[in-house]
Amino acid sequence: MADPRIIDVTLDEHSIGWRSADVDQERRIAIFDLLEGNHFAPQRAHADDYAGPYRIKLESAEGRLGIHIHREDDSHLETLVLALGRFRRSIKDYFAICDSYYQAIRASTPQQIETVDMARRAVHNDAAELLRERLEGKIEVDFDTARRLFTLICVLHLRG
Fold it and tell me: Are 159 and 141 in contact (CB under 8 A)?
């Protein structure tokens, strides 16, 4: 029976550079929320018709994202590689608006925080849609899964 979901996600520690406490908190929340509820269905058929659940490892190297997909027993199924060039602007915008958000939390009025948060969500939503487009035909994901995966891509993109 098909179970198209992620049950474990790890980030390649060699891909991760320096990260602030705020970014580390975003990573923890994204992983927690992702594991609580997601839809992740690789579209390539496998000889044994395996259809989940999945363990994934995300890695960033040389401007590419590697999504290593494993079975529940941790045996490797496939690796999908995506060029990150199309995400550079989204990642840059997301980090800029997140910095503004963290500053607003510390020193602004509730209305100012809400305004910045709305802008942050809009950038995040646009990036999630871009990720869904880039995964089309390769991995089917729902919107919330794409948002959480984009957050993790951003964490991988940081360099010390």
Answer: no
| Residue 64, C-beta contacts closer than 8 angstroms, at least 6 positions apart | 81, 82, 83, 84
Measure Cα distances from 110 to 94, 106, 116 in Å: 21, 11, 10
48 in helix, strand or coil? coil
Amino acid letter at 70? Answer: H
d(CA 9, CA 57) in angstroms, rounded, equals: 6
For the record, the structure tokens of 36 come out as 């609580």
Please give the single-letter amino acid code of residue 3. Answer: D
For strands 54-61 and 6-11, give the pairing: parallel
The pLDDT of residue 159: 47
Q: Report residue 3 as tokens.
A: 């179970």
| pLDDT, block means (10 residues), the chain with 160 residues | 90 66 76 93 88 91 89 93 88 82 82 84 92 94 94 72
Residue 41, SS3 per DSSP: strand
Enter the tokens of residue 119: 């802008």
Strand locations in the chain, DSSP E?
6-11, 40-42, 54-61, 64-70, 76-83, 139-141
Strands 76-83 and 54-61: unpaired
